[in-house]
Amino acid sequence: MKGVVPRLLQDVRKLTRTKAKDKTHIDVVVATHRHKDHISGFEQDVWDDVTVGEVWMPWTERPDDPIALRIRTRQTRLAQALHDALPANAAPGLRELAVNALSNEKARNRLLKLGTASGSVLRWIACEGPGTNPLQSAALPGVEIFVLGPLRDAATFKELDPPDNQNFARRLAMAGAQGGGGATAGPFPSRWCVSNPHPDLRLSHQEINALRRALPDAQLELLALNDKLINSTSVALMLKIGDAHVLLSGDAQWSTWKAALADPARRDLLAKSTFYKVGHHASENATPTEFVEEVLGSRTDCTSMASWVKRANWARIPEESLVAGLRKVGPYADHEGQLPSTAFVNDPDGYFIETRIPVT
Question: pLDDT, tens digit, for every residue of 162-173?
Fold first, then answer.
């Protein structure tokens, strides 16, 4: 971030210098959720010399909303407790995951300051009820903004995990377990998997929990659960600019996707995607199979891009079967490998990958 933020603001100044503004100006900043890997750049003091037309944050960050406060307090306490419980010799990946979920107050406060400054607007983003009533923003004339998440209803945090058939990795494992190839189901080779075991061979919930507590990966499991809780608060948007439909799903989890796929209007909107910023670093925790294989279906013109970093404890980032599915529906790029030359341009300094989307 120490290199990215100055480069970002430098590029913005080049675009806005003709507007005769004393400070660098950004029309809209969208802070998807509080995870450090999404907002840490706002810790830097260079933002004191930036003005912002609007700041959009998830409704769960709203200071005067009692439900949001309760959710935020619980998540923060759990994150802090998990962080404090890590032993001194914890694996670097575990420590990074724990730090990522902390409150990140400095960055959050900077965003609130930018949004409440004179001439700025602070919006609390929520998806309430069915349908696709677009937001209008004076900062984005000619752009229709459709909110897909975070949901603001009782089911928001109840369904964090997609069923097996909606998860690219798990479905591949199921196919392997049924003799469909060399895939594995969890940590076990497919030849060890038993379909429909005898009831006497099944472990009870108490036995499963006892095994989990005994596993060295128990801390990772708890940290991953808290990670999903916070991801469920992520802003997810579709921007309609001309004929282009730009899908920015943030780190939205299954609850957001499920509601969108079940709503005819939102499902139709998803089917029009011309660009997809791949959710949650192209991991197995987002992007349901139904969206790629049924909603996008046989299309070959939906451009998708993913940002991710290899971590020792996240073997499925990126999820290879998801990447393979996205390549079928259109050009795909990340910072690894050779770019499809007709669709993408690599920044020589390594800060970004650029693509053009027709907006006629």
Answer: 777 787 776 765
